[in-house]
Amino acid sequence: MAPSPDVRVAVTLGDPRGIGPEVAARGLAAVGAGPHAAWIVGPAECESDFAGLGRFVAVGGGAGLDPGRAAGLAIERAVELALAGQADALVTAPVHKPALAAAGYHPGHTEMLMALTGSGEVGMVMCDEGGADEDRPAKRVLLATIHIPLRGVAEALTEDLLVSRTRLLGRALRGDWGLAKPRIALCALNPHASDDGMFGTEERAVYGPALERLSGGPWSVTGPVPADTVFVRAFRGEFDAVVAPYHDVGMAAFKTASFGRGVNATIGLPFIRTSPDHGTAFDIAGQGVADPSSMIEALRLAIRLAGARRRGRVRSGSSRP
């Protein structure tokens, strides 16, 4: 999929010790972004690998820059490009959270992007947009809570959080994905959705009031649906997206079904942002064996969503691209 000529994407290279630079180069070559449609932001020593693939923006002033600082500077510069209207979308290669934190930055893309843009609320959505030619419905999972200990999930998962996260997702599915009436499922917290209170009270005390507040909106919300069935139903096409109560229940299901095709999209930002669904993979970096599939999908989704947002295009409600 070649990008529309009016879509410009900024690509950050992540931790330069990892596979980010190589999958970014292969991804840009695969989608054919071209020198006028892409900014590549990273350490100067990577510039020669991106000849003809876009306009390179060097950060840090040369080789030997601390890798965490290099990754952080690249994110900052790419956000500046997007906020200035010079890029319509941001695609980020993987960072190493400890290195980013050691360099004085927020220890992750989502938190850092939220701070840099002053966004009030953002959400992490894992996406596999499927394909009509393969009869694969789209798979989308929003994480209601992200990087917190499991023992803190029940306290963090409040009625207000479920409502705000679901509304944020609904607005993104309508505005960016172009789904006229999104079908959203709320994944239960407890086994069997608590079996009427036998295994917990959250489904009655938290999910119940949240569902009442979400009813009657421009989307259809179903739940709470037990975790052992909701993803099967959604990934077969019954729902357009699932709101998962915590990180691992959503990520385990999604990556089992879509590893290598998955994309992480941040919603709620003033621009489109996507990234591949894998990490830095230090153990295979520089060997030429890293799979660029997820980066390719991240670029394609960013281009598609940014193009739709830029042109104000809203498609009819469908869970297929």
Give an account of the 3D structure:
An eleven-stranded mixed beta sheet has the order 3-2-1-4-11-10-5-6-9-7-8, sandwiched between helices. Helices cover 37% and strands 17% of the residues. The chain has 321 residues and is α/β, with parallel strands linked by helices.
Question: How would you sum up this structure in a few lines?
Answer:
The chain is 37% helix and 17% strand. The chain has 321 residues and is an alpha/beta fold.
- Beta fraction of the residues? 15-25%
**DSSP E strands, number:** 11
Instruction: Record the strand order, biggest sheet.
Output: 3-2-1-4-11-10-5-6-9-7-8
Mean pLDDT: 90
Our measurement of the CA-to-CA distance between the termini, rounded to an integer number of angstroms, reads 13 Å
Total helices: the number is 10
What labels would you give this structure?
11 strands, alpha/beta
Layout: helices, strands, pairs:
Elements: E1 9-12, H1 20-31, E2 38-43, E3 55-59, H2 67-83, E4 89-92, H3 97-102, H4 109-117, E5 123-128, E6 139-143, H5 153-156, H6 159-175, E7 183-187, H7 202-214, E8 220-225, H8 227-235, E9 241-244, H9 247-258, E10 263-267, E11 272-276, H10 293-311
Parallel strand pairs: 1-2, 1-4, 2-3, 4-11, 6-9, 7-8, 7-9
Antiparallel strand pairs: 5-6, 5-10, 10-11
Helix pairs in contact: 1-10, 2-4, 6-7
